[in-house]
Write a structure and sequence with these properties.
The protein is an alpha/beta fold. The chain is built from eight helices and five strands, in the order E-H-E-E-E-H-H-H-E-H-H-H-H. It has helices spanning about 10-20, 80-90, 95-110, 115-130, 155, 170, 180-185, 190-205, and strands at about 1-5, 25, 40-45, 45-50, 135. It has a three-stranded parallel sheet.
Length: about 200
């Protein structure tokens, strides 16, 4: 299966990964702005919050740039802002205290390319999920197989999905298909069981 590079991907991305490996990450597609390639959604105190990585537009030609060549902008303090948002949102989650030191160093390191940062976070998430999927990058343009993982939380609520504990569930209700980081900080070692349940629901449809 061909999946797009994604910043802390939604649960549906990881469900597709578990169901279809080996998986290739498409690196020769043109960058698509305002998508999971540089944006994730978390459950924040005031509701769903989009975190977007700013990209350097100086290397775009005619408004286009291959995904593998997209550079991260260094003109603002986005890493500190994103980590602060994660800390504020998940400080009271069951597993943030134990897992924060696994993720924080990735937000303290300087990254040049968006795909490299996305890949490092995906590898860390796989480690936390205790899975070892077969993932590689495409060697030429193939194209992404599906856009199901691009659905917003509201759109995804129309599809069968297992629920799990969320910090602000009593305040906002259950929010489906958030970033994988929401699942990991809330469910810890049981996260992979939730992903497997979602995969089983989709297979049963």
């Amino acid at each position: 299966m061909i999946l797009p590079s994604a910043y802390l991907p939604p649960l549906s991305w990881f469900t597709a990964l578990l169901e279809n490996e080996p998986v290739c990450i498409e690196q020769y597609e043109n960058y698509h702005k305002q998508t999971i390639r540089n944006r994730c959604t978390i459950d924040a105190p005031n509701g769903p919050l989009n975190l977007s990585i700013p990209v350097d537009k100086s290397t775009f030609v005619g408004g286009k740039c291959l995904m593998k060549d997209v550079r991260i902008s260094s003109h603002n303090d986005w890493q500190h802002q994103h980590w602060y948002a994660l800390e504020t949102s998940y400080f009271n989650s069951p597993f943030f205290e134990y897992l924060q030191d696994d993720f924080r160093p990735l937000y303290e390191r300087k990254w040049e390319f968006l795909m490299d940062f996305n890949e490092a976070l995906i590898q860390k998430c796989c480690e936390m999920l205790d899975i070892q999927p077969n993932i590689s990058r495409t060697s030429n343009y193939i194209g992404v197989d599906s856009t199901a993982y691009e659905l917003s939380s509201t759109e995804h609520s129309q599809q069968p999905t297992p629920t799990y504990y969320q910090v602000f569930q009593q305040k906002h209700g259950f929010l489906p298909n958030l970033s994988i980081i929401d699942l990991i900080f809330n469910m810890g070692p049981e996260s992979v069981l939730v992903l497997q349940s979602q995969r089983n629901l989709q297979v049963a449809r």
